[in-house]
UniProtKB/TrEMBL annotation:
The organism of origin for this protein: Flavobacterium lindanitolerans
InterPro entries reported in the protein's UniProt record: Mur-like_cat_sf, Mur_ligase_C, Mur_ligase_C_dom_sf, Mur_ligase_cen, Mur_ligase_N, MurE/MurF_N, UDP-N-AcMur-Glu-dNH2Pim_ligase
Binding site for meso-2,6-diaminopimelate: R379, D403, N404, P405, R406, G456, E460
GO biological process: cell division; cell wall organization; peptidoglycan biosynthetic process; regulation of cell shape
Modified-residue entries (N6-carboxylysine), positions: K221
Protein name: UDP-N-acetylmuramoyl-L-alanyl-D-glutamate--2,6-diaminopimelate ligase
Residue span of motif Meso-diaminopimelate recognition motif: 403-406
Length: 487
């Protein structure tokens, strides 16, 4: 039996109406899912305000309401708890309800603009290979040891996070690696969790539709490190000018990694080929199957994290050499006609530039590089012309197309992208609204040895148009189209 007062530990309570000595069933912030004797937490979201659904929750059986303002109509027999911040309250309530599961394993959070999914997923892969029971909370999927669940958000809500962590406790998971998004931090979803470490990758143009300014975006990321406990570690990319900012106020053990600067964990790229990278990490050479400067940074963060969590350095190097690329992150195929197709999740200007420069480093310049790129609807509009400019400047041909238009007109999105194309790049830039047709056109334009980059959607197996998700898999489509051309 769970008592209401027991799940309110560490919650900043302003006032209470009713008794907190009551037995409760479940907790929820979605009034549609409320059942008898449940606790309803009223969250003020970007789309809806949970305070408007308090009466609905009570009519469905809610026995307690957590809110930041008492409703006018107080129902007898229902306990009302007024708190300072319902998002923060939800995080602590969820953690308490599930028995503070993050304290029973080593939880590492990875934050930054690019690289979160790769680092979290490859750390999961590495620790599994090392023989541990491991958990993963990521954009691509959530995994409890060997059981996979679909993921809809980079950082899930507090209830979902703690529910997964409790499942991990139940099966003996020792380590969990979790992507921590700026939205997740801003909405207090990670509060109440006990982190063993935090990793900062980099910071570049993204999510300015939500955070409004780059400074706000940076400072939100910083709060994650500000809240790390003394026994944890904070590992940051010191080559990124924002790396030192993340360490300013943290109580955690301060650690750095870099390719260009002096750091605790340092690497040199000795060879960079389509088949992999030869790296020197802290004076030890290792061959890995991933390619590009950005993956050198990712692998260095993985190496540093694994060592800080107690793994042997030589064992970590051996395991690094066995790691395989993450779904939709520089995934490539070479067709029978000798055309290379690369699918990558690059959906920010910095990520797109990194991928294009990586391809440029490994190509001979005798072949064409054809880039297909779009920008998501209902998201940061300021990056659209920048993305088009990068694609058209660094490619031999650029095809501007749809990503996930969502509720926006895909043609209008492409028109905004086209504003960033400079006059000297007009002739090598095409606009094709239909994404499949854009990929087909690239395949038809490609000659043997040419490279096609399909950027933006990566691992996603859908395309969202007018609120409806249709099956769409970049890798599957380009593979089929290249096979048809070979025939």
């Amino acid at each position: 039996m769970i008592i209401l007062k027991d799940i309110l530990y560490k919650v900043a309570i302003e006032a209470v109406k009713g008794s907190t000595e009551i037995a409760i069933n479940a907790i929820n912030f979605d009034s549609r899912k409320i059942e008898n004797n449940d606790v309803f937490i009223a969250i003020r979201g970007t789309v809806a305000d949970g305070h408007e659904y308090i009466e609905t929750a009570i009519s469905k059986g809610a026995i307690a309401i957590i809110c930041d303002t008492f409703p006018e109509n107080i129902v007898s027999g229902v306990t009302y708890v007024q708190v300072k911040d319902t998002n923060r309250a939800l995080a602590f309530i969820a953690s308490n309800y599930y028995g503070n599961p993050s304290a029973n394993l080593k939880l590492v959070g990875i934050t930054g603009t690019n690289g979160k999914t790769t680092i979290a997923s490859l750390l999961y892969q590495l620790f599994k290979k090392a023989g541990y029971k491991v958990g993963l909370l990521s954009t691509v999927k959530n995994v409890v040891d060997d059981v996979e669940y679909k993921s809809m958000l980079t950082t899930s809500d507090s209830i979902t996070i703690n529910k997964f962590l409790k499942e991990m406790n139940d099966v003996g998971v020792e380590y969990c690696f979790m992507e921590v998004s700026s939205h997740g931090i801003a909405q207090k979803r990670t509060e109440g969790l006990q982190f063993a470490g935090g990793v900062f990758t980099n910071l570049s143009h993204d999510h300015l539709d939500y955070h409004k300014t780059f400074a706000e975006y940076r400072d939100v990321k910083k709060t994650f490190f500000d809240q790390l406990p003394k026994g944890a570690f904070a590992l940051v990319n010191i080559d990124d000018k924002n790396g030192p900012v993340m360490l300013q106020n943290t109580n955690a053990k301060k650690l750095t990694y870099a390719l260009k600067s002096y750091a605790d964990y340092r690497a040199q790229i000795l060879e960079n080929q389509l088949s992999g990278l030869l790296l020197k990490i802290n004076e030890q050479e290792v061959w890995v199957r991933l390619i590009g400067n950005f993956n050198a940074y990712n692998l260095l963060a993985i190496y540093g994290t694994a060592v800080e969590l107690g793994l042997d350095t030589m064992e970590v190097l051996r395991l690094l050499s066995e790691l395989e690329s993450v779904s939709g992150r520089f995934q490539y195929i070479v067709s029978k006609g000798n055309i290379t197709a690369v699918v990558d999740y690059a959906h920010t200007p910095d990520a797109l530039e990194n991928v294009l420069k990586t391809i440029d480093d490994i190509r001979t310049k005798n072949e064409q590089l054809i880039t297909i790129v779009g920008c998501g609807g209902d998201r940061d509009k300021t990056k659209r012309p920048i993305m088009a400019n990068i694609a058209s400047t660094l490619s031999d041909k650029a095809i501007l197309t749809s990503d996930n238009p969502r509720t926006e007109d895909p043609e209008a999105i492409i028109l905004e992208m086209e504003k960033g194309v400079e006059p000297q790049n007009y002739k090598k830039t095409l606009a094709i609204v239909d994404r499949k047709q854009a990929i087909k056109t690239a395949c038809q334009l490609a000659q043997p040895k040419d490279i096609i980059l399909i950027a933006g959607k990566g691992h996603e197996t859908y395309q969202e148009i007018n609120g409806v998700r249709y099956d769409f898999d970049d890798m599957k489509i380009v593979t089929e189209l290249l096979e048809q051309l070979n025939k």
